[in-house]
């Protein structure tokens, strides 16, 4: 890897760390009821620990914190957490804890999800991001109460049709697996899903099953191989956020104008040669954002795994950046109407 690329990567890591630090600080302030004016200076986050200390000494807030801590202790009884690269498989004792409601497993070397997951009928949240998981077991379809499935940044290449049996699923995150090309039609049964993130994969088009998720509100299919959008995309009449940047789109269909709740549309503008005027002139409060793509230099490296990992790191950083950017846009929703339509050119 070239010295320039290494320096660029370290820069990305630095800014990613800074974004995490600032957002964690903001979340902590909000938990303690600290108004925005106390932790923002000239529009920028001021991570001054004194802000937290001052508000932490208020008796009323101390009482709230004590109640919150007690609630968290009770909740943690039903949560399984695992992290660290010393783990290559799930502990054997997990099999006997079928009362658990949440699994949070990240940054391990675990490759497979055990078949006995079918026994966890109370499971609501399955967070398995940043591991080495290479397939989902068909038994996952037995989790009728599952609401959140996050298997982002693993090594998945496909998704089993049985996932469509998780009828109460609300959030599906398959981002950063780099190799998924399609989703089984059976996922059309997921009528409760509101969030789908399949970014950083190899989808050539929006899967048909996604177009049939009638309650979908957020769709991130950025960093894929999309060349066009389906003309019937407006059947997603509940969709509010559509992220399409870093694809190969050359035009946007007029059907996007017919989506009554679409409030944020993000694309990459370098390949676009046709954008319906109605999108730019929308009177519905749509924020239309065109990002300028930054071409990545071709890396000559014998180790393919190193290339893939560097791509994953870049994608993770860009996703964190976009989340922070979108959150900032939402906080400005109370701005005057003339600022609700935004056309930006950003260098990522």
Automatic annotation (TrEMBL):
Keyword set, alphabetical order: Leucine-rich repeat, Repeat
Keyword flag Repeat: yes
InterPro entries: Leu-rich_rpt, Leu-rich_rpt_4, Leu-rich_rpt_typical-subtyp, LRR_dom_sf, LRR_domain-containing
GO terms under cellular component: cytoplasm
Pfam annotation, one family: LRR_4
Name recorded for this polypeptide: Leucine rich repeat containing 2
Organism: Anas platyrhynchos platyrhynchos
